[in-house]
């Protein structure tokens, strides 16, 4: 499957990897939480706050892979423009849609 997508380097060309300025992909680990996530882990939080923290890794993953996921030849669906942004999406991926609107709305 990896070879069908162009190998590791080909896949990384369609992710946000270039924006990280890491010299190689081998040092990136999704299991590692950010400092913010670590600091909030042991605080007394409401269920809603804890649920929000659980969404951070999912959003991070979705935004990272968004250039790969959001292409017409990968996901079959209608092209739509997100409200109040200039971004076009192919198909329906709610997590990606919400994240992009929050970042790019005017």
From TrEMBL:
**Pfam families linked to this entry:** U6-snRNA_bdg (PF10596)
> What is a biological process (GO) this protein takes part in?
spliceosomal tri-snRNP complex assembly
What are the residue boundaries of the Pre-mRNA-processing-splicing factor 8 U6-snRNA-binding domain, all occurrences included?
1-106
**What terms describe the molecular function in GO for this protein?**
pre-mRNA intronic binding; U1 snRNA binding; U2 snRNA binding; U5 snRNA binding; U6 snRNA binding
Q: Which InterPro entries match?
A: PRP8, Prp8_U6-snRNA-bd
Per the record, its GO cellular-component terms are: catalytic step 2 spliceosome; U5 snRNP
Identify this protein by name.
Pre-mRNA-processing-splicing factor 8 U6-snRNA-binding domain-containing protein
What organism is listed for this UniProt entry? Graphocephala atropunctata
Q: What is the lineage of its organism?
A: Eukaryota, Metazoa, Ecdysozoa, Arthropoda, Hexapoda
